[in-house]
Amino acid sequence: MATTNTTTRRIAIVGVGQVGGAAAYALILGSTTVAAAGELELLLVDNNIALRDAQVRDLADVAFIINRGTRVRAATYREAGQCDLIVVTAGSRQTLGQSNLDSASRNISIVRNVVDAMAPFRSDAVLLVVSNPVDLLTTLALEVSQLPLSQVLGSGTFLESARLRGLMAEQIGIAPNSIDIYALGVHTPSTQLTAWSTATVAGVPLSQSIPSSTLVGMQPVLERDTAHLSEVIVRAKGATPFGIGAVVSSICASVLGDRRNVRAVTHFQPEYGCCLSMPAVLGREGIAKTIEVPLSEEERRKVEESAKMVRGMMEGIRQG
Ligand SMILES: NC(=O)c1ccc[n+]([C@@H]2O[C@H](COP(=O)([O-])OP(=O)(O)OC[C@H]3O[C@@H](n4cnc5c(N)ncnc54)[C@H](O)[C@@H]3O)[C@@H](O)[C@H]2O)c1
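^ L-lactate dehydrogenase, sequence as received from the core. Prediction below:
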């Protein structure tokens, strides 16, 4: 490793294709925020060595231009396991027409292997999983890494929650950061849940802060657009790197800066026996606290149904 300095924050990105590359780019642009008061070193890992080295060179140019002392270099799995924060974006992208199951089984084996190759982890390392299916792979990474529960999380429905607020803001003329609403549960278009029952504007329930005719009209459209926009983007350009890249950068800033922002990320839920997205307070330890959301009976039943699928797949993985 390069010589250490107490204020250097190290983030490893494992899998530097479209998503890993965009995450690295967002991290370099936001390096002052991400590394809190210190400097940022980005370690890139990929089993495609030519691609990894090309990404290092391309991203090093960005760092030179930004000129905030950020360093970018290639690294091994072992070095990645010793970083402050490790982002797992390794995987095979799901192509349209390919079944979820095909893509899931390849990513299960990839994520198991990369997490295994990084172990043993630095004791305070935080592991952030982005590869899909993200709830299953975060649950798997938690088991394989043997890190404490709080230190393993996944991007989950953070992006969908941000998208939901942004799309709603356009409809109702209120800024996104003044709307408190989350997409929760298991991250797929058919299983994630919009927590309408707990949504507020300025602490006032949505049902009292927006005319009911507006609310009823926009709910199905927002749900559909929030859940399916990624598919639309993938159909047109093959991947969705920028939104998720910004999500990674934001989570890294929250964790390394111990900022205590509340974000919908996937993390272990004892009640459901697997990782799925619920709002969490993010701090240096990863998940500082889960916010208990008082879901309606129907919302809870929907979350339990999809959690059952994740638990079933985990059981299949354990039995080999
Ligand atoms: N959670 C989300 O919201 C979200 C959003 C977008 C993409 N994704 C997921 O992110 C993952 C990556 O997507 P992408 O578009 O960047 O795909 P990509 O194919 O462009 O990149 C994947 C990279 O992983 C690398 N890789 C594969 N096996 C590896 C291994 N064993 N060790 C190290 N690197 C390895 C590949 O060489 C490639 O560079 C996919 O699983 C995708 O579904 C998640």
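The pocket of nicotinamide-adenine-dinucleotide is lined by residues 14-20, 45-48, 51, 89-94, 107, 110, 113-114, 130-132, 134, 155, 159, 239-240, 244 (CB under 6 Å).
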